[in-house]
Amino acid sequence: xxxxxxxxxxxxxxxxxxxxxxxxxxxxxxxxxxxxxxxxxxxxxxxxxxxxxxxxxxxxxxxxxxxxxxxxxxxxxxxxxxxxxxxxxxxxxxxxxxxxxxxxxxxxxxxxxxxxxxxxxxxxxxxxxxxxxxxxxxxxxxxxxxxxxxxxxxxxxxxxxxxxxxxxxxxxxxxxxxxxxxxxxxxxxxxxxxxxxxxxxxxxxxxxxxxxxxxxxxxxxxxxxxxxxxxxxxxxxxxxxxxxxxxxxxxxxxxxxxxxxxxxxxxxxxxxxxxxxxxxxxxxxxxxxxxxxxxxxxxxxxxxxxxxxxxxxxxxxxxxxxxxxxxxxxxxxxxxxxxxxxxxxxxxxxxxxxxxxxxxxxxxxxxxxxxxxxxxxxxxxxxxxxxxxxxxxxxxxxxxxxxxxxxxxxxxxxxxxxxxxxxxxxxxxxxxxxxxxxxxxxxxxxxxxxxxxxxxxxxxxxxxxxxxxxxxxxxxxxxxxxxxxxxxxxxxxxxxxxxxxxxxxxxxxxxxxxxxxxxxxxxxxxxxxxxxxxxxxxxxxxxxxxxxxxxxxxxxxxxxxxxxxxxxxxxxxxxxxxxxxxxxxxxxxxxxxxxxxxxxxxxxxxxxxxxxxxxxxxxxxxxxxxxxxxxxxxxxxxxxxxxxxxxxxxxxxxxxxxxxxxxxxxxxxxxxxxxxxxxxxxxxxxxxxxxxxxxxxxxxxxxxxxxxxxxxxxxxxxxxxxxxxxxxxxxxxxxxxxxxxxxxxxxxxxxxxxxxxxxxxxxxxxxxxxxxxxxxxxxxxxxxxxxxxxxxxxxxxxxxxxxxxxxxxxxxxxxxxxxxxxxxxxxxxxxxxxxxxxxxxxxxxxxxxxxxxxxxxxxxxxxxxxxxxxxxxxxxxxxxxxxxxxxxxxxxxxxxxxxxxxxxxxxxxxxxxxxxxxxxxxxxxxxxxxxxxxxxxxxxxxxxxxxxxxxxxxxxxxxxxxxxxxx
Length: 967
Ligand SMILES: Nc1ncnc2c1ncn2[C@@H]1O[C@H](COP(=O)(O)OP(=O)(O)OP(=O)(O)O)[C@@H](O)[C@H]1O
Hints:
Bound molecules: adenosine-5'-triphosphate
Number of strands: 29
Low-confidence stretches: 1-49, 63-127, 153-160, 180-548, 740-789, 944-952
Shape: globular
Number of helices: 28
Largest sheet: 6 strands, antiparallel
């Protein structure tokens, strides 16, 4: 507080009142009497003992060293006389407090902030004690106020208007500031209460920080405990103008988040946080602010004493020096937190609590007059998390030269290849820093809106999610528009702090920057890699198949097993597998069940003879399949663990699916067809798989029950990609050209005005109106209202919203591919086809699962093809199938691909069909499947090995097929 002497800080009036009340406590009867406790509800919070002790100590000190100079403050005089008078004084003061408002006001005099009176005037000896007392009282009062505020509902607070006033003040300043800088001011809503204190002579934060530390250092350890402080200063830089301004520091902006918390016994996590934005007022309005500073000054309750604070202060100073050193690095400005605190062991919990610092990297000329905007944010902090909160930047991430940061997840290098400062554009930076700081604020469990953060326009903080696989510590990466990457960690609980955090979320790249951040764990990277290279590669590419490329399978032990064998033998080959069964034989190869030698890991290995493929001109199909398999990472699609070539045999080591295929499973059903719920389950999973493939630019083209394998857990896996078409995807934002009503009609057909059967219920008694209730308001959910009303306006608006389509709706191919009964009319006609063929086959599949046969099957293939093109769709009378199911099939089996459901907006269109109403798409992978497969009877042929276990593969071409035999 001493550092803010003279500051014209606007403080909430309520705080001042509480301050006065708080100060009057010194004149009240001794603690412990019930009377006293009743009158001081805040003291019930548990810190009155230590405070009383502190005050007693103070009083004693003051009495021992009487000085006429102390009389300069009337309030101090009052305290001194009170102290010497003993308890009776308190009674009298207490009486006067209750009877005379003016005297009550007098008790506030030593404590108000912003008065002309300065306790620093005069000799420091006695004044420092006064000041200490004053500081203590103020901080205690602040805490009491904060605690009280926590217990009060926001709605009941009369401070609303004051907050508004303060906000408007703040906005004024921001507007002014933004006006000068040309930056827009974030007009987001805010719950943050701020007080603005534009002060000309207030020291800059760079000055004030050491002052506070000095105070900590000079005070004896047995005197009043100064609130311990920890700071996080996130140095960032940006460019308001959006120009790449290299190096030259024009002005500074600092944002200071400060919390005041005193008394180690205070368990509450409440505190006041201050945001200070400093701007160099000497700069003309048009000058671009380049450097920014985020400073979070947080009192740490765990600091036991001033001696501890001393060490801590020294360490903070070191941190500042260290940061300054980093600042001098031209290419990367890395600020550090934890590691700066001496060489504190990372395991020490107390030290860890202290370590929250990134210092100002920017050397500030002291002589320059500065204008400070002090934003005081009253932030309500979750009690538990606030006390446990630790923000830190791990210096271990910073290489000695300060030019490189390591990704915490994979310890890969996060390089800034730019040697220049690449700064954000105005809007970018403003938006991003505002958003980022919101995220950051959430990270530190501060419940507050961030309107006041609008002016932190040059700061980019990227929140990183918690990695559940590692520990509970959060990791944040903070990027200062490309110059620096700061990794912040937040510890939720000291007990589970491990010192490591994972950055799950990639830093958003600065669109104006040429720098590149390289992360090894990025599925986006693998996608990019794939798209740039689709050629066949053999073992050299095995390393690419790290679990990092298949996040959803990253915990799979089979990755480790493969890796282990590869490490042990240098390469992976057929010799490392025991071929157990022949699972099936396809057009381009034979699939075997295989066990990796020395492990219990089973795989399905597809073996293809390269020579055979070349002879039959099927190499491109094999290549396409391999390329597609390489990029898949989806629960309903196969995982490719490895690929290699042995003896001119190309092998794909895939995930083994023990449940056979859906065709076999359907045959096992009583009526040779699935129930509607079961069919819905399977086609829903297929739909997700197709959607995923489409988004990867893969048109599957060979959907049929035989290619849908059943996993051990009963979920499905779509396999066989040798007929798939790879194409480019141009995600487009599709605006609805048709009026909402037309969209609705397209989606729902006649059902938006009539009754229909629920998808999972084929009983007529279950007839209820079912059109898209998910999108309807609660009012419209009422069947009575729905009977009379047209679809809800909200639904219409939703339908008319632009929609992102990331599927290859425009792709075209003229190949004649597929299976006769599943061929789409446009393929048969040779008109060229696109992704809509998958929606046709999807309709045929649903039909077959429900009716046990395909819709256009003829006596022979020719008739089948003819039926597909010319015959209209008919539904058998039995089994009984819901209206929605039939409707969906009807909309999918539209002969004109452009009118087919899904042809315009892809899978999203189909997902919204009432047949899937109520289905939780996101959690379907966790849903209980209709049945579990009999994994010991999947029709695979047992492979018998000759004596001596000498196994050789012999491939035979049988017709168009290639079959491998063991002999
Ligand atoms: N991962 C797997 N797990 C279990 N069985 C599999 C797996 N992959 C394929 N199979 C079985 O192997 C058989 C052959 O599959 P493959 O993909 O080689 O050809 P296909 O689908 O039968 O026909 P084609 O490749 O000619 O279109 C499949 O029918 C299936 O029963």
